Amino acid sequence: MSDQPAIEVAGLRKAYRKVRALDGVDLAVPTGSVLGLLGPNGAGKTTVVRILATLLAPDGGTARVDGYDVVGQAPQVRLRIGLTGQYAAVDRFATGRENLEQAGRLHRLGRARSARRAAELLDLLDLVEAADRRVETYSGGMRRRLDLATSLVSRPSVLFLDEPTTGLDPRARLAVWDVTRELAAGGTTVLLTTQYLDEADYLSARIALLDRGRVVAEGTPSELKARLGGARLTIRPVDVADGQRVAAAITEWSRGAPRIDQTNGEVVVAVDPDPGALADALHRVAALDLPVADVEVGRPALDDVFFSLTGPAGSGYASGGAA
Amino acid sequence: MSRDAAPAVGGISALVSDTWVMTRRNIRRHVRVPAQLIYSTALPVMWVLLFLYVFGGSIQVPEVDYVLFLLPGILVLATAFGMANTALGVAEDLADNVLDRFRSQPVSRPALLLGRALFDTARNGSALLVAIGVGFLVGFRFHGGPLAAVGAFALIVGFGFGFSWLGVLLGLWVRDPEAAQTAGLLFAIPAMFASSTFVPVSSMPGWLQAVANNSPVTHAVDAARALTLGEPAGRPVTAALLWTAGILVLAVPLAVARYQRIGH
Ligand SMILES: Nc1ncnc2c1ncn2[C@@H]1O[C@H](COP(=O)(O)OP(=O)(O)O)[C@@H](O)[C@H]1O
Ligand SMILES: [Mg+2]
Prior knowledge:
The complex is a heterodimer. Chain A is α/β, with parallel strands linked by helices. Chain A has helices spanning about 45-50, 75-80, 95-105, 110-125, 140-150, 170-185, 195-205, 220-230, 245-250, 275-290, 300-310; strands at about 5-15, 20-30, 35-40, 60-65, 70, 80-85, 160, 190-195, 205-210, 215-220, 230-235, 255-260, 265-270, 290-300, 315-320. The longest helix of chain A has 16 residues, at about 170-185. The N and C termini of chain A lie far apart (about 55 Å). Chain B is mainly alpha-helical. In chain B, helix 3 (about 65-95) packs antiparallel against helix 7, helix 5 packs across helix 6 (about 145-175) and helix 6 packs antiparallel against helix 9 (about 215-230). The longest helix of chain B is centred in the N-terminal third of the chain and has 30 residues, at about 65-95. Chain B is elongated and about 60 Å long. The interface of A and B includes residues 56, 87, 102, 108 and 150 of A. The complex binds adenosine-5'-diphosphate and magnesium ion. Magnesium ion binds near residues 86, 162 and 163 of chain A.
């Protein structure tokens, strides 16, 4: 075994005209492990994946896959990688089988091996029944599974999955998860991007938290949770509009900005695990004299880490804070 | 062979194999959704009939029946309009998510573009055959013998291949599929009318003659016409071949370079 990571990214920068998409990203993914690249919309996840997959040239920094530079040695990189992009990249007018065989031919597997590999993958991703139907008749979930299958044709040693389950129903999501775990168990290095904390938690050995083009935290899921420590206080006022007032009242005890769920006014803060502090915070809320539907004290979850480290503009959430 | 050869490192065999995959991909698409195939086959037939019966009576060409004059021009026209389809097809390929898959795989770089140009050339060829068939029904004949007939066909198809690379370039430049197709037509329509396709160049005003006489379309039409009429064809054929080669020499490297720069 070599010590060289399968994916090595240092100081990666990329701007689209004025938008600074990546602002110095560093990552290292050991061979055979799964890294979850977690971040809200617009964090730069797709940009990282596209650079690693040789589709986009970075403005600065370096990226290597299996030791090969993605810019200078792109052909070697392409021999080793598989890419399942954010949008299914399959031919609509071809059948599932034809898509897979075509990918086999482009990887120079020859006719017979392409056909055999296609049959294997149709089986693996539960597409046997639909194999000879045109992709335009497939559901979104079937397309994504076919897309994943297509990126596995060449048995890549490094696999990029860009939000592979976004928009999938729970069953299709589980199917993608199962395959990802099987591949990882078989030694494939996987870089997975996701907006879903549970997905990153479940699939990844390590998680890198990406926010506005920077990695703001990196570690195992439990390390990240431990980093936050403390307790998690949730208060849900009866009136959604009271969320702001509750947040403002307890912001003094909060580590990081309180966050408010705009749909139901629920306020979540991370607090020190100190009964006195907790009691003070609750007193302050009581002093507001507004109706409260629910109060809960619990342990921090991965999403608390996520929201304490990434600023405003999370999906569906907005941070409150002393207004 | 007694031992494994080194794996083929790209090169010609990869280019041939990948180009075939890409060409077949286009064939599959157009056979399954044949609307475009039908339109582009019907178009030259329509031009023949319209020009023959609407303008045929009023357009005077020296010495020959108008259909003999018109048909070679229409055949070249069909390939020039094919260019707009090529521009559309390339722009569609670029907008398609599948492009990311091809570009992240070890696919020979020019294969996607070459596969498109070859498919469109084959489609041109079949549309030409249909137009020639209809031409025979309305009085067209090859007067230069079978060899000249085959030569005329090959010359037009070859010219169409050259022209299709202009379509590839347009598709790469314009990117938006509908805009690319319109740009192709904006290019093809004046190129057709400012040429010897429908009327003799000598009937045009002086400034337009200067344009038409230096149009590659005029050279291709004159060459095809000379071959089908059985007239001496050496000069126009040479000119048409030179124009075709010139277009290819310029457009292919430009297009491939442009394609390679995507993402950079
Ligand atoms: N082609 C592009 N042109 C301009 N801006 C872009 C382009 N692609 C992405 N961006 C911007 O770059 C940032 C990062 O985008 P992206 O990598 O797609 O994020 P994510 O995948 O995490 O949602 C966003 O602000 C996005 O709007
Ligand atoms: Mg994305």
